[in-house]
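Lab manual, section 2.4: Encoding a predicted structure.

Procedure: take the sequence of the chain (133 residues), apply the prediction step described in section 2.3, and record the output as structure tokens. A sample record is shown.
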Amino acid sequence: MNRKFEKILAYIGGTWQILSGLITIIPYSSMIKRQGFNVTSNSQLSINATQSVLDSIYSFSTTIGILFLAIGLFNLYLSKRLRNMKVEKKIPIWFITCGIVSFFVMDFISCVFFISSGVIAMAKNKSLRIMNN
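Recorded output:
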């Protein structure tokens, strides 16, 4: 049984995660860092407090971007490992888990692609089990 369709869906989802990670790291985090340099106020204490908060937000957004990048690369690797005539158990569950996590971080594009890929792979697993028995 050919697994081309779920591979394509997983490739698209992984590519989107890599792209959104790069967007988070490069333009978004850089914009936050620039806002920290442009802080002006009456007191030095207020400037330091604002810069500290913006540095924390910068660190958080950069970490999230790196996490998206790493998970996207891992998902590309896993989608490449899907074998055609073999029952895969863990990879479809991982794709569905990534889809659910993507839903909770409001990444609806990844959510749709990964849940679709996981459900289709699980359906093909069921038909492969029936064919083998």
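Check your result against the sample. The two ends are 15 Å apart (CA to CA).
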